């Protein structure tokens, strides 16, 4: 049984591409392992039970969680014809080495990473799914739900997009003189044309805004160029957002766990330190009510 598992691992990751489920002619060609029974049914070796799924070398234990396919941050599921687009297969339920599998419709794609990149044409868009496999425990996930990529423009693409962009302002408050970077989100993948930002009634192509008493709290929108690449946007302008209001002090302080580790602590400010540029910041940490100057499991930031 041990040798059978070794072969199962080897062929699962290094074997020749093939359909899922080890093919067979008679039951003698199906190795009985922890996951695969010596039963040949309709040309495929039978799995131990419904908790296992066919893989090309036999069967693997199926995970309960599905991965998720998504577009780049801030983008819709639409892509401009002839432009590059990137999708991600997200899965974080197990700490293990993953091999990713991508499908466009029923066709298995060659990439094995967590991202898939292509140039949009009639052959590269459609319904995408992905799944993951782990090496150490021979686990396999269910397929993700379908993520439909729609082509805009070109010979066979949609001529009109009904999606509306959204304006993102990264903070609600800031010290005067701070710079905020606006983001125009919910736009098609591959959009490379001009974005117009309207700040307090004035149009600009710059996304950075210096906050002053004259513009603090004022209205802001973003607008896509229409038509663009043969595409018309039925709702090219976002709903109204607001620039941050002026502040002269820190409104709240909290300790949060740093991303990717349970040992690093971060002192989080509202507004964030980058919007307090004109005010020097000194951080004082306490552990059990005792002042701490240095502590290995804390990230003690000092702004001077």
Give a description of the structure.
With 304 residues, the chain is mainly β. Helices cover 4% and strands 41% of the residues. It has one helix spanning 2-14, and strands at 36-41, 44-47, 52-55, 58-62, 68-71, 75-80, 84-90, 98-104, 107-108, 115-119, 126-134, 139-140, 147-152, 160-161, 166-168, 173-174, 179-181, 183-185, 187-189, 195-199, 202-204, 208-210, 219-224, 232-233, 241-242, 245-246, 252-257, 265-270, 285-287, 290-292. It has a six-stranded mixed beta sheet with strand order 9-8-11-13-6-19, with no helix packed on it. The termini are far apart. Keywords: Signal. Residues 67-140 form the Ig-like domain. Residues 1-21 form the signal peptide.
Provide key terms for this protein.
304 residues, mainly beta, 6-stranded mixed sheet, 4-stranded antiparallel sheet, 41% strand, flat, disordered N terminus, disordered C terminus, Ig-like_fold, signal
Low-confidence stretches: 1-19, 294-298, 300-304
Alpha-carbon distance between the two ends: 64 Å
Strand order of the largest sheet: 9-8-11-13-6-19
* Gyration radius from CA atoms, angstroms: 27 Å
DSSP E strands, number:
30
- The mean pLDDT is 80
User: Helix- and strand-based class?
Assistant: mainly beta
The quaternary structure here is single chain
Proportion of helical residues: under 10%
Strand content: 35-45%
How many helical elements? Answer: 1
Largest sheet: 6 strands, mixed
Offer a quick outline of the entry.
With 304 residues, the protein is mainly beta. The protein has 1 helix and 30 strands.
